[in-house]
Write a structure and sequence with these properties.
The protein is mainly α and about 190 residues long. Helix content is about 70%, strand content about 0%.
Length: about 190
């Protein structure tokens, strides 16, 4: 072992002697490599931490807005009202009906603010969130003033389609909430009645 170490030192000695004209080049390249590595590694990890925080914050903000939207829909009985109208039409009690909900133009503020950060979300959550808000906007357009369900007496088919979209939106919201709760280990919070 000692003889091997002596041979290694003897082999490396020419690299570090002053007679080697390339010693400054080796030193410069080594210093540049170590300097680049020293600045890259911490920045890489800091960017990863920053992106993970942004991902979690954006996910939880959208979770809160979706949860609140679903609670409002449940509390005000929008889907139940559409079902009652559909049943009345199927029973022949009415042939057409106008249904209108006053909706603010300033809806979904968290989603609108988070649009530029949607790319940091997990792909499955990202796809569901975009679909949820697209469906929500479709049903909102139908029930707000000037929408499909209130410009004229809408018939059974229009209500069936609106109900299908509303139910799909609500189910998708439930899946989003469950997925986020499991992924981020959120406690299940029972809404107040």
């Amino acid at each position: 072992a000692l003889s091997g170490a002596i041979e290694l030192i003897a082999a490396l000695k020419p690299l570090f002697s002053e007679k080697d004209p390339y010693l400054p080049v080796y030193s410069a390249l080594g210093g540049a490599f170590v300097g680049a590595l020293a600045s890259f590694v911490p920045n890489y990890f800091l960017e990863g931490i920053k992106e993970a925080r942004l991902k979690k914050a954006t996910t939880l903000q959208l979770y809160a807005e979706i949860k609140e939207t679903m609670e409002v829909v449940q509390h005000r009985g929008y889907i139940r009202h559409l079902e009652e109208i559909e049943h009345a039409m199927q029973a022949g009690k009415v042939t057409g009906y106008r249904y209108q909900v006053i909706v603010s133009d300033e809806r979904n503020p968290i989603y609108k603010c988070a649009l530029e950060n949607l790319g940091v979300l997990d792909i499955d959550i990202q796809a569901m969130v975009v679909e949820f808000y697209q469906l929500l906007e479709a049903i909102t357009q139908d029930v707000k003033p000037g929408g499909l369900l209130n410009t004229t007496d809408a018939g059974l088919r229009a209500y069936q389609e609106a109900l299908k979209i509303a139910r799909r939106t609500y189910r998708l919201g439930e899946v989003i909430l469950t997925t986020v709760e499991k992924r981020y280990r959120l406690p299940a919070i029972v809404p107040e009645n």
